[in-house]
Amino acid sequence: MIQISDLIPAPGALSDKAADARLTALRAALPAGDYTAIEDDLLPYAERIDQAGQKIGSGAEIARISELMTLAQFGAASVGAVIARVCDDADAEPVAEALLVARFLVEVVLAAPGYPALLPGNLLKEHHVDRENASWPDIEPVCRDLLVRASEAIHRSDALDIRISSPPLRKLLTRHRMETLRQIARLDKRDPQAIGARLTGFDRAMISLKLFLRLRGAS
Predict the structure, then answer these.
(1) CB within 8 Å of 169: residues ≥ 6 apart
(2) Dist CA 180 CA 193 (whole Å)
(3) What is the rounded CA–CA span in Å between residue 88 and residue 104?
(4) How far apart are CA 77 and CA 105, in angstroms?
């Protein structure tokens, strides 16, 4: 099952130690719903992330793609906003939000065979797929639609005329963008449960190398 809190970067992902500590505190607080250690500016986002997580955890079936996108905006985009805020770069929120929405849609695809409740009912109906028996390759066109929407979210973030002023945030979001695009390509016409559907350690190492070269060239 997808956990919205899993979209929060893992400890150590940000080179800004203070920002990283705030993210770590948020991730730790979400399961218990105890926000006493969370600063006031992050509380609204924590509540949205928690509510989105509860919606997913309830097992309620998503009826339409618009409902899934609303869930993405409510939960995943809130994670993006939090990441920008802890880096003291509120202007970059729209970029972070769009990238996290894209990642959420990719995670829905990866979870689809085992957790079809999140697949929009109108798309299943359009492609003549029974949710109760949803399996690969029947769900391939539904997954393809979600991956297209994930790509579009990334392209929208690219089109935003926003300069990310925080170097740690810029590095984190650049890596996030690269990993998400590679994961989208990896899932093209591939069973999400198949061996090799998810990025490997080699993939991440290559992305790290490309990221290092890109940032060095920009410096």
Answers:
(1) 14, 16, 19, 83, 84, 87, 89, 92, 96
(2) 17
(3) 23
(4) 11
CA 163 to chain centre: 21
Give domain 4-218's CATH superfamily: Farnesyl Diphosphate Synthase (1.10.600.10)
**Strand ranges inside 71-206, DSSP E:** none
pLDDT, tens digit, 9 for 90 and up, residues 163-197: 899 999 999 999 999 999 999 999 999 999 999 89
- The residue behind tokens 């992050």 is 42
pLDDT (0 to 100) of residue 139: 95
Classify residue 93 as exposed, middle or buried by CB count within 10 Å of its CB (0-12, 13-18, 19+). Answer: middle
| Structure-block tokens of residue 80 | 């993006």
DSSP E strand stretches across 62-147 = none
As a whole number of angstroms, the distance between CA 28 and CA 48 comes to 16
Q: What is the pLDDT of residues 56-84, one digit of tens each?
A: 999 999 999 999 999 999 999 999 999 99
Q: Is the pTM of this model over 0.90?
A: yes
Cα Rg, the chain, nearest whole Å = 17
